[in-house]
Structure formats: C-alpha cells, structure tokens
Amino acid sequence: MAERCKLCSNLVIDEDEPRGTGLHGAPYVSYLEKSHKNGCRFCGYLLQIQHLFGTFVRWNFIGESYSGYCDRPTFESLKISNPTCPTSRGQRILVRPFQVWHKSLEIYREHSGLPSPFGTPIAVGERADSASTWAFLQDCLTWCATHASCAREGPLRLPTRLLHLKASAGTASLVETKPGDAMPYVALSHCWGGDLPVKLTTANYKSFQRGLPRGSLPNTFQDAATVTLRFGIAHIWIDALCIIQDDPSDWVKEAAQMADVYSHAHFTISAASSKDGSISFLTRQRTMPLVLGLEDDTGLGSPPEQLLARKRLETGIHSYGKAFDATLDPTDLRGWIMQEKVLSRRTMIFSSEEVQWECRNARVCECSGVTSWASDTDRQMHGRATQEPRMASHGPASLETWRSSPEQRHESWYTLVSDYTLRSLTKETDKLVAFSGMASKFSSCDGSAYYAGIWESSLPAGLCWYVYQHHRVQTLLPQSYIAPSFSWASVKGNVDTLPAASGDPTRAAHDLSVTVALATADPHGTVHSGSITLTGVLVAGEMRYNASWAGVRVNRKLGNAGAYTVSFKGAVESMSNQESPQFYHDCELIPRGGADANGEATAARSVEASPTSWGPSTVYLLPLCAARSTASGSGGMYGLVLGRRSGGGSFERLGLFPFGFDFGGLQGSVDTSAHQERIRGFFAAGTPQVVVIE
C-alpha cells in the first residue's frame, strides 16, 4: 500500500472515520499544487476536477434580504469528506469547494468486486433507456408492491378517458371508460412548454378514437408510452390527449378529478428533464464521469483500474431547495405539476442525470440504489431523522403526514403552499384549480371547510402568511381576480407561513365566519368573491412610502427600491424609529384618496408601485394571533395591516405586522415586560369592532 500523503491521505477513508466529517480540513489549491509537484498523484487528481464544478450562483443572506453572485470555476480550498449520501454498497469520497454546500463531486473507482478504499460504485447508464435503468425501476416496483401504505385506497376509479397502447400496431387510441372497467393505467406528469402540436379537441375526437400512430405524438408522449408498455401496462392518461382542450366545461370537470387520476394510477411518469413535449427524456445523453487515472491500491496485486470523478447529482431528491435554482428540473418550476407529484402513489422521475423513485414509503435514486427508509443508510443519506425527509419531500409521503396530528397536518399543508407559490402558471387564473386536487385529498383527512386556500380548522393562524423575498419572484399582484385578499392565493409572491403562530390556540381575533362564492361546482376550485368577518381590536395608524428608505422589500423588480413603513397612533409612543417593527407587505401599495370614514387617504393594493414617495395614508392594525418564538420562547402577536376599500364598509389586507417581539424580524429573541407592555399598548389604543375583509 502506498505511503499516504499528509495533505490528502491518498483519498482513503478510514473505517473508523465518522460519516459526513472532513478528513483533512480544507487544503488550499496552492498546497495541492506543491504536493503534486512533490509526487502525490492524488493531489493531482484533485487539481484535475476543478472544471467539473463549473460556474454557479451562491446566495448571501443578510438580514431579511439576500443577493446572488457567481463563483468562478476555480476555488481556493477544498473540503474532502465522507459522503453525505453513502450507498448500501460502499462509501465514496466527496469533494466540494470549502463552505459551498450545494456543489460537490464523487470520486470512486470501477472494479470487479475487489476490496477498495473507494467503495463499490453504482453506475448510472449513459441514457435513461439503458439496461441498468430498467433494472432499477423494476426493482423499485417490486419493492413498492410490499409497502402497505402504497396500496390503492378503495376501489379503482378510472379517468373518463384513457389512451390504449397497442404495441404490435404501434398505435394509441382514445377509449372512454365505463363502470366495471378495471384495467391498470399509468399517468404522465410533464411540462407543456407552450402549445402542443397534438392535443385532443372536439374536431379530432373521432380520429383519436380510431387511433394515432405513436410516432406522430410529441417525443415526451412517445417516451411515456414506451415506459408504460415496458412494464406490461396498456393504458396511459395524458392530460393533453384525454381532456378536450377546447371544451371549457370538460376541462373544468376533468380538472376537479385530478386527485383520483393520479392517486389511482399504477404509477406516474414524471418527464422531469423535458421542458416541453418535443424533448425526449429517454434518449437524453447523460454526463459521463471524468477518468482521473489508473490505480491499484487494493494491496492484492490486481490490475490497475480507473479512478473516476463525477458531479454529485443535484436534482430531485438531491435538490437543495428554492434558494438554488440550478438544482431544479423543469417540472420543479411548474405549478400544475406540484399536485401531480403529491397525489401519485408512486412516481418514476426521469431527472436530468438519473432516474429517481418516490412513493409513500421511500425516495430512492439510481446513483445510490434501492434503500429502505428504515435503514441506517437512509438516515445517513439525508443527514436527518428517518421521518423528516418524508415530511419535507413534497411528494407522495406528504399524504402520510396529513393523517397525523392537526398541527403536523397544517404545517405540511403550508409547506406545500410555500413550494407551490414559488412555481409558475401559464394562466394566473389557474392558481386555485391547479391546487384543488391536493385540497380535495387534504379535505378527506381534515374534514373542515375550505376557503380559497385557507382551512377553517387553521383559523386565525392560517391568515399569518407573508410574502417571502425570493429572487425569482417579480410581479406580486395578479392582473385578474383570483381570491379575496385574506388568502395567499390573492398574490403572486412566494408565500411562507409562521409556524410559531400555527400551533398556538390563543386568539386575539374571534367569532370568525367566512364566505366564498364558487365559480364552478368544484368546492376547492376557483372563486368569484369571498370575505371573512371577525371581531377584533382595530388600531388606526399611518403608512408612508419613501423610495430612498431601506427596509423589507418583497418585490425585487429593478428600480423598485425604497420601503413602506407603518406607525400606529397612540399605541406605543415611546417606541423609537430603531425599534419600529418591520412591515411585511403583500404586494405593491399605492395611496387611495377618500376611502376611510373621514374621507382621508388610505393605502391600497396595486400591480405597480408608485414611482414617488408618499404618505401619510391611514391604515389599520388588526391583532390576529398570539405566538411564541420556537427558537427563543419570546412572546408576541401577529396582526394584519388593512386598508379601507372604496366606500369604507370593508377592508382589504395589505400585509403582516409582527409586534411585541424583539423587533429585528419575525422571530423574537427576548421575552421582556417591555414587549408585553407594547402589546397592551396596542390593544388599549384600539377599538373593538366587527371587521370584514374582502
């Protein structure tokens, strides 16, 4: 065995080295260069892999905002560690730029079963239609058949229409299902990417029934048919080919049945890497590993074998979340696909560089093999307790969480809301209907009334949402009416909720009643109007906007600097400007004259911000829900900032206002008598009354 380098230890992981820990800190590139010149070929291997990292964006979080900058393809130091995602077949080396968590490389070697300090690799084929991929998926299906939680719930409910695939004839024909039919089917989840050249309409309905050559379908659909037939199933549901696209009534009826379509499918195919129907996900060429050199370090005198390096995959179950868009597949950016992922019992995800699998019991991938949730390896793969990645997966396992306690159920719901509101929709008016399948399924677990995205069982805490500042969000108010202002669906921003408020039973507002006027027969779909009526203390205040102020800005539009500030009359007169709490506005706001009871100007929602500074405008604080910081135990309140609507009889929501906390942000840090005094001051300055928010 070769003498180990004191800098890189010849990239050997000792058996007693704890997983996930660094081997030798963060060696600088200059040290690696010197070591390589002195004869260490392993340090030379580390120098070779620099270009594999590529250029990427790193995000700096500063207070309530963050900014992005590009790192260069080179790096100054490396972190060499045991893998954060080891496999059941052995360990690998992970290398990443120091203090950069979302970019890493695997170093491993190919061999024929001989002992190796680099572990046994699990190869990923050059394309998704490789033999190894088909074998992986068959293993997943066989394994999933043993999961009780993945079994279909209740009798099979077929979609209205399916495509019948005839392998011998190479055709796909539209069939209308009827009571008593019981054939298994597959569902496709995909990005439209604009208009499709082939879709079902009233004009071509008969020709679809007679049958189409599969070769005439878009490439994504052809691939889906190939996968379906590969696993012995003859029927598939594809939205574009099974819903009459120019018949609004058919579209509304079928959209309301999405929960059944995906939850009753034998499995769902996610064309995750295809941005539109023209792109094949089966024949996509994957990135092959970099050959670093030939090695024989087994000590057994075996022939030298290749030492390889490949990018640590970042998509799907390896994704680092919404802060790093480079880790997302096209399907992760689309609103409609969110519920298709959650409602499916099992999903084959054809991601950019591998195929992944999700079901209600597991999330696994080609590069790591099939590993049970209950195993030690799974906990090491995800770096957390076994149940946590299931709850956070936003996949089929979310439904298991909905059957747990009300607190966990609603926390899971609003986690999904946060993910969903970061995604885009071609038609903004689809905001509620594209989420209705999940609402329908959630309703079967929760049983409470649903009001345009808000559950009666979560009130008033369910109103404590705020718009999160994210670089992908630009316009924050829809051009069309989507939902009443108390609902997160009324804005286009990425919405987060306050977990500290969601589980606290103490209520400042009470006697709540909600009404919505549905636009269709779907109780979880689009609405014409809605209002919430509650009894609470209303505190008058003033809002100003100054284009030169620094503060919370949820809209990152170029040129929209400045901030909105709110002060409340007579509430806490001793509060200095530095202590003023942050106001988290829902969207751009403008002054509107003559709206309050005295004819004074108030603030109102707007698609575009006023280009100039303005104020004062009368607004109102409605203390809503008591909360306690989960981090520090500090107490406080959350309230809604309201503006009077034209006519003065009702209000619209303008944003969220935390008070009584340490005023550095949404989370409190110190529970002091001064904070409680401020809370009492707000209530003393207000007037109890019935408030209607539309």
UniProtKB/TrEMBL annotation:
**What Pfam families is this protein classified in?**
HET
Query: Where along the chain is composition biased (Basic and acidic residues)?
Result: 378-387
Enumerate the spans annotated as Heterokaryon incompatibility domain: 185-340
Task: Map out region (Disordered) in residue numbers.
Answer: 378-404
Q: Which InterPro entries match?
A: HET
What is the name of the protein in this document? Heterokaryon incompatibility protein-domain-containing protein
